[in-house]
Each structure stands twice: as C-alpha cells, then as structure tokens.
Amino acid sequence: MKQVIAMHGWAGDASHWTHWQRAFAAKGWLWCNAERGYGEEHPVQPSWHTKANRRVLICHSLGFHLVDATTLKAATDLVLLASFSRFVPEGAAGRALRTGLQGMARQIGTSAEQTMLKRFLERVAAPLPLHALPGSLLRQGPSSRGRDRLRQDLQLLSRIDDLPPGCPRQAGVLVLQGDQDAIVIEPVRRQILHHLKDHLLTPPCTPQLQGEGHALLITPQLQRLVIKWLAGE
Fold it and tell me: Are 138 and 116 in contact, with CB atoms under 8 Å apart?
C-alpha cells in the first residue's frame, strides 16, 4: 500500500491539498491530511496505515516542524515544499525577521488581524495573486484556539534552528524551493540543503524551479513532478 500524509504550513489548512489529493488518488495512493486547526477545524495528526510499505510525508513550509516525530521517523520518503530547518537567520536579517514575527503575533486577535493575515497570504501566493491560493483563513477567520496556535507557531518559527526531531536518515528526500519565495529568504533555503546533506544517507533531490513563489501548492506541474519522482522516473 502507498500512503501520503500531508501537512500544511502556518495560517494554512488541509483544503490546500485538494488538487494534490485528487492527483495522487488517481495514481492509487491513500491520502491523509494532517490539520493544525487554525480555523474551525479540529487538529488532526494521521498515523501510518499498518499495511503501508511506502510512506510519503509531504510538508509545506512550517509543516515540516508540525508533524509528530513518530510519524516523521517512519516515513520512507519526504517531499519538502518551501521548507526550512531554520527560519530566522543569524545577523541583521534575522533580527529584523524576528521583530516582524513578534509584530504579527501582537496583531492576532486585534482589529489588525485580518490585514496582517491578508498581507502574509499575499506574500505566500506571490508572484501569483492571492485568489490563486486554495482555502484561506481570510474567509472564516481563526478560531479562539486557532489564534493560540498561530501565536504558538510564530514563536516556534523564531526558535527552530535544525531539522525537526525524528527526521529519518534513510528516507529519500525531494526538496522543492521557489526562486521567487517571498517568505523563506535565500540563505535559509540554502541552509536546509546543507543540514539535509549532512543528515541523510543519500543526498536530497533538489530540482531547480523557476518563477515559483512560496506556495508551491497551485501549479499542477509540481504535482506531476512529485509523482514522477516517487515513481523513480
């Protein structure tokens, strides 16, 4: 049995994977969505099916650090979309970014929340327009508990400085990064590649993507690329 568990990133939800789920289901994959629960949805951490001998974890952005360590450790393959091992770099750029994260946290639950989320999601979607993003907290707004999770995960973004606990050394890893990513800065994109090369038994696959931003959830060609990589093509 071939199974996928997919984890979205900050301010996202499981609906982001709708088109991916259809594409994989057409190829015979069992697809399970993890859910952080920023909106009205309850948090969900799927487990691997006992008969799954191909266990593929697909993570977008912060999602790489939101997956249960036991689930991550048992993955046979990782697909990392705009992911990172450290979000806040050292030096002046890191100080500015940390200040920005603190400012975002202060706006959660205030009259500025909607504007802050819209600005963030516009940068996630870029260079495409905001309406290209599947699903959005802008429509329903965060729940009370979801706001707590948004704040908690902004703090997590400030703290992480390595691969998440449970990252398997033996897994095959595909790393997809957009050259126009407006969320994960270029030194951070390089750093995860260094961390993975030091950690993994086999170097990650890192195809070059031109004209792609942070979302990496919208373009059907990327779904096909991932499916072909998993098939060994």
Answer: no
191-71-81-11 Cα dihedral, nearest 10 degrees: -100
Q: What is the pLDDT of residues 12-61, one digit of tens each?
A: 999 989 999 999 999 999 999 999 999 999 999 999 999 999 999 999 99
> How deeply is 130 buried, as exposed, middle or buried, from its count of CB atoms within 10 A (0-12, 13-18, 19+)?
middle
Residue 24 vs residues 7, 56, 222, 231, 232: alpha-carbon distances, Å: 15, 11, 12, 12, 15
pTM of the model: 0.96
Residue 40 phi, psi dihedral angles, 5° rounding? -85, -10
Q: What share of the chain is helix, strand, coil (3-state, %, to 5)?
A: 40, 15, 45
Q: Which two tokens stand for residue 169?
A: 């050394």
User: What is the amino acid identity at position 16?
Assistant: H
pLDDT, tens digit, for every residue of 177-203? 999 999 999 999 999 999 999 999 999
Say which CATH architecture domain 1-233 belongs to: 3-Layer(aba) Sandwich (3.40)
Q: CA–CA distance from 103 to each of 106, 108, 112, 127 (Å)? A: 5, 9, 11, 24
The band of 138, judged by pLDDT with boundaries at 50, 70 and 90, is: confident
Residues sharing a CB contact under 8 Å with residue 75, sequence separation 6 or more, in sequence order: 5, 55, 56, 57, 168, 171
